[in-house]
């Protein structure tokens, strides 16, 4: 019995030594917390965001401290301590901090700054104070917005029209462009820090209250300066169009066969869906295609040339009111020129460009869109077929299709539109040699 008891005592002692050794090994671990930071740029501005992830999977986190430092100026951004068990360490294994920092409000000036992240774990290392991680990130605080110099002395623009704005910025920028009311048009670097922005004022807007150049640097500093402009209050006609039974019977089956979601029940209901819902969807798709950042060089060498030997059947900017059996049932803007020649006439590219869309597009039928660079696009609708693939480079005058009646066309013709960074604009300006020479190509050539 005594021998058995003695053995048990030794086993208990041995077990205690093993457990103590394991606990000592485990609690005296020497792995410090991991720190990962995102959103920190070499150049910081007046307002910036940080995301800091701190992790210690063994002993857990004891405390965390984040601060910004500039010489003797120190601002604590985050400081937090966590409960630590002597035997188990901390139960907090990971923390994620999302911080919004406004250095000027904390007394910092332009110049070098340091972001310091300190984190300590719950181990027994360093006289039970734990393992410490201290990471310092160097950056520069930039509080000065970029300088902007307007090169366009005065800009002329009409309702529904286009214009070119030239300007220079004093440093590399993260974003720059021109505001027309609430519409933003990107500026394209054409020579060093000199930028060109083609802009267009939607025909749906009857005034111009904001015309500014904006530049924002890498630190988020932003400057917006007014453009000296002359605004022409151009008027557009309003037309009353009668919907005939023959037109509805001839055109609506095309949409019913292509769009299962089209309103059924009557041809009028189908027309209302096509003219309002589908038109809105089609125009949105066109805006998305023609708002993409163009990497194409500016290809315009002179005035555009649309369908030759054609008669103009409808103008850009017409506001159409549709009547059925004497009652107004719908409305829509006409956002292009309708040009008619002989049936099945050849359709040339109005200017050199690259095909960025070729497909069936609802009310526009078979459609081709060309990118001419600098955010300038042309659209050719109601075509008989699709004769040029996406990605093809075309020359001015190269045949890209033939006229037809696809889409919502009442007769054989070409619907020709011009767009500037997603905005439909007056095509007649771009077809006018004098306008193109003095408003677009002349100012651009003066930069070279």
Topology:
Layout: H1 2-27, E1 34-38, E2 43-44, E3 48-55, E4 61-70, E5 73-81, E6 84-85, E7 89-90, E8 94-101, E9 111-121, H2 125-128, E10 132-141, E11 148-150, E12 155-158, E13 162-169, E14 175-180, E15 183-186, E16 188-191, E17 194-200, E18 211-216, E19 222-226, E20 229-232, E21 238-242, H3 245-258, H4 267-290, E22 311-314, E23 318-324, E24 327-334, E25 337-340, E26 346-348, E27 353-360, E28 366-371, E29 376-383, E30 393-394, E31 399-402, E32 414-420, E33 423-425, H5 427-430, H6 433-445
Parallel strand pairs: 2-10, 12-20, 21-23
Antiparallel strand pairs: 1-3, 3-8, 4-5, 4-9, 6-7, 9-10, 11-13, 13-17, 14-15, 14-18, 16-17, 18-19, 22-25, 23-24, 25-32, 26-31, 27-28, 27-30, 28-29, 29-32, 32-33
Describe the model:
The chain is 19% helix and 42% strand. It has 448 residues and is an alpha+beta fold. The protein folds into three domains: 31-141, Sandwich (Immunoglobulin-like), CATH 2.60.40; 148-232, Immunoglobulins (Immunoglobulin-like); 238-427, Glucose Permease (Domain IIA). Strand 28 and strand 29 form a beta hairpin. Residues 15-23 have low confidence and may be disordered.
